[in-house]
From TrEMBL:
<keyword id="KW-0732">Signal</keyword>
<feature type="signal peptide">
    <location>
        <begin position="1"/>
        <end position="27"/>
    </location>
</feature>
<protein>
    <recommendedName>
        <fullName>Carboxypeptidase regulatory-like domain-containing protein</fullName>
    </recommendedName>
</protein>
Length: 337
């Protein structure tokens, strides 16, 4: 079961976009933000580069080396990106495997390559954003500096439970998908398992983001989030869920009994999760549930309600009754930091 996310527009828990707005600005220029926070900039799938007409001469032939200076901008009117770039230079002539040979690479900010006269494909990537240009290095004269526009921005994600209850970062993860659905109804996964407060570099556009709380049950939510070129978008998503700890006890507040098998059911009787142990922890979407405890071939069951942001202990009282014996129980609410 998945809930659509609410995105806060007050008290700083909002989609916050860097720009020229006055007042409480939480996101600075994107190039600065990308240097200030952890980022995802791992290997990415390269765009197809074989759609151009190949040159008739081999660019690796002997010749005088020429300097080619390269610079990348987040937006057409923005300043140069000084860190986090990966540059790649390809030959336009496919190799025996049908792929374009990679001739040179560079990482960092603006860069320069020494190349023999000829044609090349230059690609620059910035996280999941990239740009490609066909460049001709002349035999005579200098080549103007090549400036590639990435049309890129960034996204930084977090989430709360209920209206404003903090969720420990280790219990949160995000997946970023394309906003468009394919013919089979699925979306293309762009980056998965993003941790809170990580800056993800993306091309400008709208993305479908899912957030998982706890990771193993039904506590997930989703939202469509827009990334603008040259800006850092901060989004805090809202989970209508809470964390609970299950305990089979002989008396209210008593010690939890080990070797207990647990099943959580919805009000309709569908199984949500199963666990074993004295006090397993579950994260559940708000709603009505039943906790079923099995201990020494006896069944103990109770109903309880989950309220968003209200973490709790669900205590099931041990009974001397036979199998399938229903017992009274208590629910103890806890405050979360």
């Amino acid at each position: 079961m998945r809930a659509r996310s609410r995105i806060f527009l007050q008290t700083g828990l909002a989609i916050l976009v860097a720009g020229t707005a006055t007042g409480n600005v939480f996101a600075e220029d994107a190039t600065q933000a990308f240097e200030s926070f952890p980022s995802i900039a791992g290997p990415r799938k390269m765009p197809k580069l074989t759609g151009f007409s190949p040159m008739t001469s081999d660019p690796l032939a002997d010749g005088t080396l020429k300097d080619i200076k390269l610079e990348a901008l987040l937006t057409e009117k923005g300043g140069p990106v000084e860190a986090g770039l990966t540059w790649r230079v390809f030959s336009p002539i496919p190799g025996s495997d049908g792929k374009l040979p990679l001739l040179a690479t560079s990482e960092g900010g603006s860069t320069a390559f020494n190349l023999v006269p000829g044609e090349y494909f230059v690609n620059v990537s910035f996280g999941r954003a990239s740009a490609t240009r066909k460049v001709r290095v002349p035999e005579q004269g200098a080549l103007d500096k090549q400036v590639l526009v990435l049309d890129a921005g960034g996204m930084k994600l977090n989430a709360v439970s209920g209206s404003d209850v903090r969720i420990p970062p280790a219990e949160l993860s995000f997946d970023v998908y394309s906003a468009d659905t394919k013919s089979d109804g699925e979306r293309a996964l762009i980056v998965e398992d993003v941790k809170p407060n990580t800056v993800v570099r993306l091309g400008a556009g709208t993305y479908h983001v899912t957030s998982s709380y706890g990771g193993t049950t039904n506590a997930s939510t989703a939202a469509d989030i827009q990334v603008e070129a040259g800006k850092l978008t901060e989004a805090t998503m809202q989970h209508r869920a809470a964390k609970l700890t299950l305990k089979l006890v002989s008396e209210p507040g008593g010690e939890a009994i080990a070797n207990t098998a647990w099943t959580i059911l919805t009000s309709a009787g569908d199984t949500v999760s199963e666990a074993n142990g004295a006090f397993p922890t579950q994260v559940l979407l708000e709603g009505s549930y039943s906790a079923v405890a099995r201990y020494k071939d006896k069944i103990y069951e109770r109903d309880f309600t989950v309220k968003a942001g209200v973490n709790m202990d669900v205590e099931v009282l041990l009974s001397s009754g036979g199998n399938n014996a229903n017992t009274n129980a208590s629910v103890v609410s806890e405050a979360q930091d």
